[in-house]
Amino acid sequence: GTFIDPTSDPAKNPDRGERSQILRNDGKGVFTLATPSDTTPAESEKLPLTGASFADVDRDGKVWFSHGVRSLSRLGAARRIDRTITLPLPPGTPKGRRGTGRAAMDDAGVFWIAMYKGLVRFDPRTGEASVIELHPGPRSPGEGYAFQVNGVVDEDSTLLIGTFAEGIFRMRKRDGEVLRLWPAPDFKPTYVDHMVGDLLRLDDGGVL
Questions:
Q1: Strand partners, 25
Q2: Is the pTM of this model over 0.90?
Q3: Is-contact 53 22, C-beta < 8 A?
């Protein structure tokens, strides 16, 4: 769908018809929409309408969503922002490059957020956000990889992560060690053939 800002003067700021990228149900029949844009809005208690790459609900029933380059905000009463976190950027992230990507919440209520370079772990209850250093295990390929993460799926003590042009990896949560699952560990991925856009958990337990 599209979003039209009801507070905007259409004569001065005509609606551009940008498509909504995120549609999230909070479990109470309320949906959160966000349009695809790299524009970071000024800090406000109102809901930003640009730059979201994911939205999810924490264990307390609060909606969290990303916006801008690396901001993560929570919706409180009356659907207004009551908390905003600036996420750390993994080393090597190019200046101005969009930071937040898709995310997964694990059984402990922790968000694992895909970034342009690597992952960030965020605990909503403590407010702690930390960069996870991805590194290959002994005799495992991966040295020098960019680890541009596009999708994340929780697997109890590990995560499945999909990357831009480097395939799919399994990451151990406790230390960030990764093992490439696809393509085969001894195969050098190509730019186009092994580009993963996202990972989704299916109802039957499989991963798409």
A1: 31
A2: no
A3: yes
Tell me the C-alpha distance between 93 and 194, whole Å: 21
Q: Taking the CB of residue 192, how many other CB atoms lie within 10 A of it? A: 7
φ, ψ dihedrals at 78, nearest 5°:
55, 25
Instruction: Return the HEC string of 47-102.
Output: CCCECCCCEEECCCCCEEEEECCCEEEEECHHHCEEEEEECCCCCCCCCCCCCEEE
pLDDT in tens, 114-163: 888 889 999 999 999 999 989 888 777 666 788 888 889 998 899 999 88
User: Does residue 79 come out as left (phi exceeding 0), alpha (psi in the -120 to 50 range) or beta?
Assistant: left
One-letter amino acid at 133 equals: E
Q: Give pLDDT tens digits for 20-39.
A: 445 555 555 555 554 444 33
- CA–CA distance, 195 with 175 (Å, rounded to integer): 25
Contacts of 74 (CB under 8 A, 6+ apart): 58, 62, 63, 64, 81, 82, 83, 84, 124
Q: How many CB atoms are located within 10 Å of the residue 49 CB? A: 17
Q: Which of 92, 99, 95, 108 has the alpha carbon at shortest distance from 66?
A: 99
